[in-house]
Structure formats: C-alpha cells, structure tokens
Amino acid sequence: MPELNMISPLLTNMELVKCVSVHGGTSVYIVKSTKSNQSYYLKHICIPESQKQVDALMLTGAAATVEDAQNYYKQVAADYQAELETLEKLSASPNIGCYRSYQIEPKEDGVGFEIYLLAEYRQTLSEVLAETPMTQSGEVKIGKQIGCALCSLREAGLIHRNVKPSNVYLSSSGHYLLGDLGIAKIDELKYCSMPETMLSSFSAPELFSLLGTIEPTTDIYSVGMILYRIYNGNHGPFEDEKTSARAADKLRVTGEQLPAPMYADYEMADIVLKACAFKPEDRYQTPQELQEALLEYGKRNEASDALIVVSNSHCIIPCVSPMPSVTWLMTPDNGRFTMIAPNPIGRSSAGSYSFLTASQIKSPPIRYITTCCGVIAMTPSHKNSMLFLLLILFSFINILFPGVPCQDTPALAAVFLRARYTSM
Q1: pLDDT tens-digit series, residues 105-120
Q2: Nearest one of 52, 56, 42, 49 to 7, comparing CA atoms
Q3: Integer Cα distance of 200 and 209 in angstroms
Q4: Which of 21, 111, 192, 271 is most buried as measured by Cβ atoms within 10 A of its Cβ?
Q5: Is the pLDDT reported for residue 413 higher than 70?
Q6: Contact indicator for 29, 12 with CB cutoff of 8 Å
Q7: Helix (H) or strand (E) holding 160
C-alpha cells in the first residue's frame, strides 16, 4: 500500500481503512471518521508522479532550475484547483457529484505538489452493474440522469472527458451522479489533449488517434458506450469466445461498424448506436438530444422491471420485443432448467445461460411441443401457464431415467417476451 500522509486539517480525526487502487501518480483510499464513523473516498494525486518527470522537464530545457520546475508544477496545481472550484459552482445540479473538501500541499521532499480530495463514500456504477441485476427502467434512468449531468456541464460551457462507470456514483437517495475530475472548456477543446492514463474502453475513438482532438460529442459517445454494455451482457462490442476484450476494443476504435447490443430492442439499439457513432458528426450533437431520444423511447415503450443484465452469479435474460420465429433451448439440470439463449443478431452468445425454476417464470406464453433427448425447444404460443408443472415432471424423468428415449414426449415451451422475472 502506498504511504499516505494523514494531513491536517483535511484528514484530522480520520483513519485509513484500505487502499482501493493505485494508477500512476493517483491513489484512491477509503478512510473513516473516528467521530461519526462515516466512510469517505480519498483521492491522492501526486504532481508530478515521480522524480523522473522533473528530470525530463529540466533535461528538455523547459525548466532551467529546480525553482523553475516548482513554478511549473505550481501552475499545474492551480489548474486542478480552478477545476475543483468550477465543479463546486455546479453542486446545485442533482446529478453532479462534487468533492466534499480538498487540500493542496507542496511536497515535503522534492519538487511538486500533492492534492487530497475527499468525497462521500458511494457505490460506483461499476459496482452496481457487477452486483445488481439491471432492469429496463434502471437503464433508462441511468441514461437520463447522466445526460442531465452533461446538460449542466454544457450550460457552464464544459464537457466531461472521462465518463465511465467508475466515475458515476449512486447516491443514498438513488440518484446517479457524474463525478471525478476531467472537465474541459468547450471553447478551448482545440488546445486540449487527453492523457493516455485517462483512456478506457468507454473513450471515444477520436481520442486514440495521434492527431485526434477532444470533440463536443466525446462525452456523449461515452454515455452511449455505457448503455451499450448494459444491453450487451456487460461486454463491449465484438467481444465473444474468440475475440478478447483488447482485440474487440481495437475494432471499436478503428471504425468497425458496431453490431447492435444483443439485448436491446430495435428502438433502443438505434439510440445507443447513434450515441456511439464512429464519426463525431453522426452522433447526438448535444446531451439534450440524447435525453429527448430516451424520453421519447420511454413514452412509446413502458419501462418495466424486466431484467436486462444481471451479475456474474446470475444469467443474462433477454428482453427483446418483437422477436418473431425465435427458438430457445431448455435442458433440465438437477431440478432446474438451463436456458440456452440464441443471439438475436446472429452472433455467438456463448455463456448467455439462464437458470430459472418454473416458479420464477410469471405467466409467459407457452405451448406443447416435443422433446428430443431431454432438450426442449420453445416457440411462441399461449396456453395455460399451469402446464409448467408438466415440465417439472419431465425434468425429474430425465434425471432419474436419462437413458429413456423421449423424442415423442410432450413438453412445455416458453418464450421470454415482455415477461417479468424474479432474480435468484
């Protein structure tokens, strides 16, 4: 764990709980008040991150003396402070997350400064997506509330360069807040650059180009990519059993046309793909446009609690409608049923399995069909949902007598279209 100086007055009556992450010159900790027992995030930024950067500054002639180098980093620290003060002015926005307090100090040993940022401890969107099944209504809420944060930034003449799930927080009141540093003035974008350490799988393609500049739609792309992954089983575009996340991301940033998210209906897929367009001019040009598209979608489609994405310990349940002529496969597995979901867009969906018992399926369309060696094919129709009891019976038969041929066994079928489910 990196050494942390418990500075005063910011960290008075605070104790270190743990180090969450270390990346370059930035470390994130969890600290706790010894008085209130409340937990906080503490972000510690070293400017510069190492003595090597000071040496390089002087070697290139950018700083002739140590004093010149200190003055250079003093200006860098002042820029950070100006950004923090700007965020404080936006604290009235319901979806902007500001730091509770901060402190900037010269390094005790060496050239440069140390910045300490204290924020309330909140769950990040990354943690929410990893631990909580996401619903259709939840996804629309995320899109609209992050869009609201971007609208507030636009009104102040700013964009956020580093929108990603780890920089989105869920407040105790249930609101999603866009936080962390990374804002830039729209009028000065042609002079701005994106530090390589800030690039992620949510960053717009133009940021990876040597000649690329930050565009006014860069943050809109990132919001679109968050929505894309929510509707794609928490995976980026092109990821499958044959394509690693790194290789898939290379396809994304080099202009390969993105496939529709696997679990988005055609209207939501259009919204997401427009937000994630490769060319900046093909995207929504303002956050308001993206918000309006999501609002109109909500008016035309009832935002339900049907699951879209669940955590790794659950399955991925598609909520796509309409979806005609789709065949599903179900195999009995120790009294439960393994749903093998086909990919609506024709790509592989290996690993997309659903583990549900009959009692967890709330009145979906059903019909009788035949089984073959214990595998049940499912097609759309409407019958009495009580017939699911037969499916339980056939499951036990296949478990107890796996050798019994069942080609002509009548079985129950189901299609998951606009049905609601309870999580395991």
Answers
A1: 999 888 999 999 999 9
A2: 42
A3: 14
A4: 111
A5: no
A6: no
A7: strand 158-160
